[in-house]
Amino acid sequence: MNAAWLPLTTLATSLLAAAVIFLLPEEARRLRTSINLLAAVSKIILVALMVVRVSQGYEDTFSFQIVGGVEFVLRADALGVMFAGLSSLLWLCTTIYAIGYLEGAANRKRFFGFFSLCVASTLGIALAGNLFTFLIFYEMLTLSTYPLVVHSGTAKALAAGRVYLRYTLTAGVVLLLGVVLLYSLTNDYSFASEEGLSPYLNDHRGLLTLIFVLLVGGLAVKAAMVPLHGWLPRAMVAPAPVSALLHAVAVVKAGAFGILRVIYDLYGIELSVQLGVTTWLAVAASITIIYGSLRAIAQQELKPRLAFSTISQVSYVVLGVSLFGPFGTIGALAHLLHQGFMKVTLFFCAGNYAEELGIHRIDEMDGAGKRMPLTSLAFTVGALGMIGLPPIAGFITKWYLGVGAIQAEMYWVVAVLVASSTLNAVYFLPIVHRLWFREGPAHGKGAWPKEQRLGRLETHGWLLWPAVFTALVSIGAGLLAGLPFSPLDWATRVAVGEYLP
Amino acid sequence: MIERFGLHESTFDPLWYTHWALAATLVLPILAGLLGARCAPRRLFPVALACLPILLAGALLVFDYQQAGLLRWQWQVAGVEISLRFNGLSGLMLMITQWVGAAAALYTPGHLRITHPGKRARWLWPLMGVLISSLSLIWLAADLLTLYAALELMGLAAVGMLLLSGKPAALKAGIRYLLLALVGSLAYLLGVALLLGYWGALGLQALAEVVEPGPVTWVAAALIGAGLALKAALFPLHGWLTPVHENAWTPVSALHAALVIKASLFILLMLWSILLPGTLLAPRFVAWLGMLAIVWGGLIAWRADSLKTLVASSTVGQLGYLMVAFPLLLGPSITPLAEALAWEGFWLHLMGHSLAKAAMFMAAGNLIIATGESSLRGLSGTSRRLPLSLLIFGIAAVTLMGLPPSAGFTAKWLLLQALVISQQWVAVAALLAGTLLTAAYVFRVFRYSFDETAPRHQYQPLAPGMDIIALCLALAAFALGLLAHLPLALIQGGGV
């Protein structure tokens, strides 16, 4: 039985939320908050329903014709539902956080309207059943994040927005060219097709490689792979919830997810290996991982350090994809989720430090653990997870990636992983050290840059609880990785489907 | 190719009520316009009431076409045979004309109420009626003489509307437009006379049967082409376009950019497909000009200081996309698939641009009225105070940029696919570059609007409906992109 309404309704919840928010007046704060939360919760329920349906073996599909030979397809398959689950869960957290963060700020209607639109696009990307539909939502994501990036309206934000558009729109054009070339070669092509593009291999080897380069090149901009990453550190001028959105929920993830789709569902992993593109991709991902970590060490401010860390971490996903073998795939898929939880925690915490204490630079963080214990605990969990310490989720991915590399007989990848973990430790441990083991304003030495008492607790509750929650999820995803419906379990399910058709 | 324009025999005679629908389509706009001059409506409701029967008549014609196939009419008037035909393409263009026309008409009362243009304003209504009627006639006409008459009538009505605003700059631009339009008509008329004298056929179908390639045909095609290109503001004959729109009233600009220039393009494509089927050079030449137009139009829009100039200049680039498709529609040895894709992409882009450009002119007009400033700089801080107008501008801009989910995107997709199949890589590059150039000038507007440091203005409140109508047009361009196969089903096949 095909429940076509399910993917459509899931998409519609956030679209509808966006439309209603745009219609409401700026002052209707309570109503807007309720609608935001209602939409987020109902979306989680719908996605949970989809998870159940997929685990029962259904792939609910909604489709209609756009023009001859091109269809709009939403399909809830295992991989898509995985990303949809991530984005909808983190949407709820980020929405709660953003409501707290933007308390009393201007232009909240615009912010939340485009915020919802942005998440709707992400969900569309997750559920897109063919490349054309994917492209629609991918470009929608670009357009709907622009107002968020320039939200503060300062000259710096506007400049960052300009850079963001330059990168992403150019990437969109490159992607469009790749998609058009592919459609001209193969006609409408569903992600669900079993065969892959292998029938075209003998006659069109060069063209297939070109299309691959165009598609992955276009996607790599959003995935912030070196040297196409320039927009990401600049976009850090945006408010903290937007950074969380860019780094963990939507934009960067959409790029990585697109690369997953291209390799697993469009080309097929075997064809990609035959084309010889995966090795190059692995090399590019490794360069990004090392380069991002090195740049992160050089940053003196917290948010840019986290931004470069994202550049490095997201490429683990790409690295895992380019390793031929189930373990690499499981590592890549699981990391898509794990990195989301951990990175969003780190950004929430960074936002909390900035809001509550006015901390932007790392050397201002001395002793913040005493003043804001829960936030600092959450930050520590995220940081240790990024380094890859058990039992936090990051360990699982690194383990699987390492095993995958050995299985694929690419031993240099193991060296990259070890080097990268070391570098992660180099740039995260000093922060953790400052938080807990140095004496700072909380111990009576000096003063915080700009302290506000936002709430009864260490900071505003709306800011604190999302960070604590995602930190707990990060630990849970690592500790309970063996349980059904854990990220690892679901990633294994997708990988098994990929390798054992 | 000419079958696609419905120039062949029909299977069924039109039914009795079809005749009435035709008459209503052609006459009612003028009558409604005269009524408008008499009453000078100040509210939406009477205008909506007047638009309703016209829209119904158009819908009825399309319905009849779907039932009976091609509809034809012929009359002898003073020894001259006048013939009309109604096929899917005519239906599509007629619907766009009527709906955009209705939107412009509904926008007008609010606009006039706020801007207080004086007594002259009542003459806008009959001119608008004549414009819609003559446009409808252009989509239907199947002989050279009717086409000429309708074209001339449309041109004069357009000039009249542009002159109405009465500003000295508007008079100057309007007179220049009038002169150029007359030159264009003259060139067209000369071409028609040449054809008539040599081949002795006025009806398009008869002409298509007798015409053969040769110097006479080529000269006639060149004259007609040049004349119509001037009227359609095709690059490099677009110089008159920007000053005209700069000074015209918003609904007039919307109608002009959305419909009037498209009519000349329609005639051009139709006549060339009769006169020059399978030629290589002429369509290639147009396509090269089109590529230049995309780049040049984008650049002048990017350099523009005033909002209306920006919107008007973008038309030049957008017409370039259509020009690029010419070799696929007219050229020799085009695969049927590429031709079909280009054909659908051409009309989809034309329709999408009509809707989006009308919406954009209205949104820009609203912004200018509300802020009282026509420069881009004057938009500073509007994102906080005029979010809806700006959002409409943005939605319309998505269509112009050719980003999903919009008619512009689907059309660009079809055109790109056709160009890739026929391996015209330069044109592919031009189309893709067009997206980036359009984004460059559109986001300039937004960069100003998001500026929070701007001083606070007093904003003039807008009349009800002014934003809503523009929003409907912009959203229609979106819907057209996602539901493209519904309208395109009308123009698929040979129009049988």
From TrEMBL, chain A:
It is found in: Cell membrane; Membrane. Keywords: Cell membrane, Membrane, Transmembrane, Transmembrane helix. The keyword Transmembrane helix applies. It is a multi-pass membrane protein. Residues 128-421 form the NADH:quinone oxidoreductase/Mrp antiporter transmembrane domain. It holds the Pfam family Proton_antipo_M. InterPro entries: CPA3_Na-H_Antiporter_D, ND/Mrp_TM. Belongs to the CPA3 antiporters (TC 2.A.63) subunit D family. This is Monovalent cation/H+ antiporter subunit D family protein. The lineage of its organism: Bacteria, Pseudomonadati, Pseudomonadota, Gammaproteobacteria, Oceanospirillales.
UniProtKB/TrEMBL annotation, chain B:
It is found in: Cell membrane; Membrane. It is a multi-pass membrane protein. InterPro entries: CPA3_Na-H_Antiporter_D (IPR050586), ND/Mrp_TM (IPR001750). The chain crosses the membrane at residues 20-37, 44-63, 89-109, 121-141, 147-165, 177-199, 219-241, 253-275, 281-302, 309-330, 350-369, 390-413, 425-447, 468-491. Residues 141-438 form the NADH:quinone oxidoreductase/Mrp antiporter transmembrane domain. Keywords: Cell membrane, Membrane, Transmembrane, Transmembrane helix. Signal peptide: none annotated. Pfam families: Proton_antipo_M. Belongs to the CPA3 antiporters (TC 2.A.63) subunit D family. This is NADH-ubiquinone oxidoreductase.
